[in-house]
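== Polypeptide entry ==
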Amino acid sequence: MSKLGNKIKEIRLKEGMNQEDFARELGYTSRSTINKIEKGVNDISYDKLELLIKKYNIAVDELFDGLSGNNEKEDHTERVELTVLCLIENGNKILLQNRIKKDWQGYTLPGGHVEKEESFVDAVIREMKEETGLSIKNPKLVGVKQFPIDNGRYVVFLFKTNEFSGKLKSSKEGKMEWFSYDELTKINTVDDFLDLLKVFNSNDLNEFQYVVKDDVWNVVIK
């Protein structure tokens, strides 16, 4: 029930009227119209609202009190999966992982999920150690990637660094290999990988987003 609809119902009950009689008083032909207004399904027209105010000597402030300044907070909570990716550069080369999982096969950047209560910086440092064997330093947040999931969104924080130490290794996720930027068009990268790299390497871009329309996933870069 809407707040205005609830107030209209209070006025009707205060006058001791059923919905049919109240509808007739306001010039409606059916009680169902009043029923829908009280439930918030339909809005009351301006002329009927004006008639209501005059007929029952209702102050406008009384009718609309609390409708615009209520204390209820809108719930903006949604389900979110938090992950990280990192672009590790070594001169003109970047480190890629040849993913073997069927859901996202091809060369892409290493990364993984953020653990509960873990900082995003700590997460990307940990994931790079686990996935590549390298200890990275000073990862910089350069953008974000996102796409919709059931009842929420999947968010990927995009980091970049050229500071690292250690011995390169691969993991069960896939083999790690260095490639120059010139070689990227010659290897099998994951879908839209080159568009994602634009966000990593541009000072003017901040977000890579998949927008789904009619079951088609479209890339939007901002």
